[in-house]
Structures are given as C-alpha cells and as structure tokens.
Amino acid sequence: MVLGLKKMSDYGIGIDLGGTGIKAAAIDLFSGECLSRVTLPTRDGEQDGEVPGFVSAARELVCMLTDEVGAPAGVTGVSAPGLAGDDGLAIAYMPGRLDGLEGLNWAQALGSSNPVKVLNDAHAALLGELWQGACRGAQDAVMLTLGTGVGGAILSGGKLLKGAIGRAGHIGHMSIDFEGDPDICGTPGSLEDAIGNATLASRCEGAFADTHQLVSAYAAGDEVAARVWMRSLRALAAAVVSLVNMMDPQTIVIGGGIAEAGENLFNPLKDLVSEREWQPAGARVDIVPAALGSWAGAYGAVYNSLRPG
User: Fold this and answer.
1) Across residues 82-111, what is the average pLDDT?
2) What is the largest CA-CA distance in the chain?
3) CB under 8 Å to 102, separation ≥6 — which residues?
4) I need a labelling partner for 83 at 20 to 30 A (CA). Which of 102, 103, 153, 178 fits?
5) Strands, E, within 157-293: which ranges?
6) Contact by Cβ (8 Å): 58, 109
7) Residue 220's pLDDT is what?
C-alpha cells in the first residue's frame, strides 16, 4: 500500500501501450516519484465482446494502481503508437496492428469523467525524459529510440514538435541514402533500415541473429561485426549531425533496446559525430543515454496530461 497522499490529484496514471506489453505507472505529480508500476500483456488481436483486449488490460491496470494507492488518480494519460488526433484524445492513424486503436476515445474506454490525453509513444518518451530523465529542463532536445525500428521526437523552444498532422519526429524515416531501397514508409535509404534490428539479417548476410549478438561480437574484436556495426554507426552519426544542423538541440537522448550496447554505441558514435559536426565557437551537442528506460512513455503520458494545450 502506498501511503501519504493528501488527495487524489496528488498522483497521475500513465499508460504506455506497446505491441506485446502494456505498462502503467502511478506517478506523484509534485516529485515525479513512481509510486507503483504494473505490466500486462497487450492482448493485441483479442476481443472481450466488442471491447479490444488491450482496453480490458488497460482497465485492469488502472484498477490495480488505484487499489494500491488507495485513491483515484487526478489525471490519466496514454502513450500509444500511431499519430494522435488534433484534439489529443485518440490515436487517429495506426494501420496494420492494434485493431480498434484508431479513433478510440480513451476517456470513454476507461470510464473516466475527465479527458484522457493521448500522444504518440516516441513523443511521450521524450516528454518523460524531459520531466524526470536525461534532458530535464531542456528547451531544445531530440530523442532517438533504437530498436526493431527507429523512433524519434523533437522538442523545440520548449514545445513538442508535432507538425501539421502529427508526423513530426519520425526520424527513423529520414533518408541517409537517396539511392537506397524504400523503407516501409517509402523513404529511400532510411536511418531505420540502416540500424534497426528488423533489417540486420540483410545487412550482415545472416551472420548475426540480432543487434545484441552483433555488438557482443564487435566488442570481442570480430572483423565482420566491426564492419557491419560501424557502418550502422556512421549512418546514425550522419543522421545526428543533420538533426543538429536542422534543429540545433542542446541534447540528443538515445534510448531503446540497441542503446543497451552502452559504451560500444556511445563511444564510437560520439567520435563519429565530433568528426562531422559543425561546431561554431566550439559548440557541441550533448549525446546521452535515456534515463527512464522502457518506462519513459508512462512518465511522458502523465506529464503530457499536465501540460497546456
């Protein structure tokens, strides 16, 4: 049992919807402390009558946290894949998976009498890191999430950059080779295809099962691994310096499963960026690992509910 809360508005619940797991955290709105957190399978593709399985899971998570804290949350927010609608109350576009997510009003789905704000999962991760993570207090920052694919988000002048229809921040679909093959969004030679785990088999001709195995071999001095990994890092460095020239961020935060490579990622990447970055008056961008790990989206969902607009 979590004790000491003065009233229900003292904490918020952040729900982070993923393809295989759905996370929820109860977070103190004043200190940012995580009071409790729980995870359930997403149940993508399942139905409880007319209700998608992931909605039932989210309801169960909210009940679990409310029971543990001992009072209803003051705010609830949702982080999910896809493009959020203009009103910020639903995901407007998410084709191909999580059937039932598009257009779902989360306040109605959760039986909340208050609006439940919704945003893209990469946007949420950046807001989480801004609030309680690796780029606290920043006005200009970029986040990259490196995993199966490559996600991203941009903070400019203290505001989350969403763009005209919510596409802003899809950094994985930046072109770094105009003659390359089109990726899933049609972008030629994208960053996602250059470093995402989904394309590793073709990049290494089947030599490594996943990026973790690739990096382990690289650390052990394997020449094939070094060639494949450093080529991916050169692509990432090219994207980073392009982002620096376009957005001029104070900080670039890198998270996702591939970021678990630690110094085998950050040390060579920083060297590559340093060689290529435009550095007026010696200015250099700060490249840092994400601090909140897989819970950044839940933090960001709560923080988004506290921000105006």
Assistant:
1) 90
2) 63
3) 82, 90, 91, 92, 93, 94, 95
4) 178
5) 159-160, 251-255, 286-289
6) yes
7) 97
pLDDT digits (tens, 9 = 90+) for 143-186: 999 988 899 999 999 999 989 888 899 999 999 999 999 998 89
Q: What is the pTM of this model?
A: 0.89
Cα(27)–Cα(30) distance, integer angstroms: 9
In angstroms, the CA 22 to CA 254 distance is: 22
Domains of the chain (ranges; CATH) run 8-126+295-306 (3.30.420.40), 137-290 (3.30.420.40)
Residue 11 structure tokens: 């904490």
Query: Pseudo-torsion of CA 16, 115, 168, 166, nearest 10°?
Result: 120
As a whole number of angstroms, the distance between CA 84 and CA 118 comes to: 7
Residues in the chain: 309
Tokens of 130: 């801004």
User: pLDDT tens digits, residue range 225-273?
Assistant: 999 999 999 999 999 999 999 999 999 999 988 999 999 999 999 999 9
**pLDDT in the model for residue 209:** 94
The amino acid at 178: F
Q: Kindly compute the dihedral angle of the four CA atoms of residues 205, 179, 249, 91, in this order, to the nearest 10 degrees.
A: -80
